[in-house]
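Review form for a predicted model. The reviewer records the input and the model, then writes brief findings.
Reviewer: anonymous (R2)
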Amino acid sequence: MAVPTWTPGQVLTASDVNTWFVPLAAVKTSDTARASTTTLTADPDLTFSVAANSTYFVELVLIYTGASGTNFFQWDFNMPASATYVYSFVYQNSAGTTNVQQQNGGTSAAWANTTGVGNFQSMEIKGTLTTVGTAGTFALTWAQHSSGATNTTLRAGSQMVARRIA
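Model under review:
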């Protein structure tokens, strides 16, 4: 669906305003810790509903911690049937180098380095989510990359915002 064209003096409906001018947003209000698991599970906070036959620009800022040199932070996305999310992300790899990479959500998990439970890491993800025929939930899923007893934690203040663009 293309963005509508409004005319001067036209009164916008609540649906117009909510669909085209109000972003979808989710913010973590508290930390979520996971240990001894590599099973990707939806984050309880970073999730929202998206419309069918729509395109969104989706941005995430993730703040995370984990054991130094082990476990790491692994993520992917759950999305409606037939949807695609093509994104790029800036993160620190296991060599401690900042990297920029491209990924297709829902196809395979990506992972980023952790440098100690007291060392906050951050990552920025930006991409295009396109839904086809089916509305549903878009959610960040995550776990440890390799299982370990030390918590890998997605921190409060992490956020996900989507703006409908078509």
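Findings: The first helix runs from residue 14 to 20.
Further findings: The first strand starts at residue 24 and ends at 27.
Recommendation: see findings above.
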